[in-house]
Amino acid sequence: MANGTPGTVNRVIVETKQTQPPKRYTEATLLADMESIAKFVTDPAKKAMLKADPELGKQGGIGTEATRAEILGTLIARRGFIKNDKKNLVSTPSGRRLIENRRGSSAGAGRSGGDYSMGGRALSDR
């Protein structure tokens, strides 16, 4: 059927449902998403740059396996921005303040995980 072609609706079903929030991160799922951060980047040029960089891996990740684990450890233990709640990771009040402050600053406005990944790459080139 081509777009704009008239059709007939034979049946409509209305269901009452509620949306569900996304599942919380566990350490394993967060580390996996850090490894493939490019999938969260919407800008095609930035996404291609992330995926093309051999040091970021074919999925365009943040750091190496060891540095990703170190980053997570820093966020949990040393900085207290995230805490473990059973098996899930949950932001702390100071972690939420950090995000809000970054969103409001010119340094963090409109930036994605891919931006931070590329920024880290640029710093390591110096």
Can you describe this structure?
Mean pLDDT is 80; it is low at 121-126. Strands 1-2 form a two-stranded antiparallel sheet. Helix content is 44%, strand content 6%. Strand 1 (82-85) and strand 2 (88-91) form a beta hairpin. It has 126 residues and is mainly alpha-helical. The protein is extended and about 60 Å long. It has one domain (27-124): Orthogonal Bundle (Topoisomerase I, domain 2).
Strand and helix layout:
Elements: H1 27-35, H2 44-52, H3 65-78, E1 82-85, E2 88-91, H4 93-104, H5 113-124
Helix pairs in contact: 1-3, 2-5
Describe, in short, the structure shown.
The chain is mostly helical and 126 residues long. Helix content is 44%, strand content 6%.
H/E element sequence: HHHEEHH
**Strand order of the biggest β-sheet:** 1-2
Output the CATH homologous superfamily.
Topoisomerase I, domain 2
Beta-strand content: 5-15%
And the CATH topology?
Answer: Topoisomerase I, domain 2
Main sheet overview: 2 strands, antiparallel
Estimated structural class: mainly alpha
The portion of residues assigned to helices is 40-55%
Spatial extent as radius of gyration: 20 Å
**Count of strand segments:** 2
CA distance, first residue to last residue:
56 Å
| CATH top level label | Mainly Alpha
CATH architecture: Orthogonal Bundle
* Tally of helical segments: 5
Number of domains: 1
The general outline is extended
How much is the average pLDDT?
80
